[in-house]
Amino acid sequence: MPIVMPPVVAGLALLAAFGRRGLVGVWLAGWGVQIPFTITAVVLAQLFVSAPFYIRTAQARFSTLSRDLEEAASMDGASTAQIFWYITLPLSRSALWMGLALCWARALGEFGATILFAGNLAGRTQTMPLLVYGALERDLGAAYTAALVLLGLAAAVLAFTRWLARWE
Asked: Are residues 57 and 96 in contact, defined by beta-carbon separation less than 8 angstroms?
């Protein structure tokens, strides 16, 4: 669901879950833990929105693996954990790295869920996209500079994923 959910709706869902009166937030408040508008909220928002990119990449790779090697290892007495660690994982390594890169790139550009759940507190919860948004009102040069940094990082991720695809 998070992959098709609008990011602002994801932020609202996180606020409903972890806010002071949220499903989990009420319980956490009893322990003195506050998540919204903190660095933890930034990480949760970005993880919630970007994790599906990693999961889909991993799922796609795992589903295309030939089961012959796994069945042979099982017949030779390998446990499920051994099959995963010594056969499935090594055969999926490049796809998992690619999924991680895509997940990170998506998190890097996250705006909607972050601004709603973590806020835009300079020096505390402000991310690069939020900096671009805020700088548009004050300093167009700073907005362009931050945008160029984001574009450079996106290009680096694209180059990395292309290199991984060729390497495999």
From this structure: yes
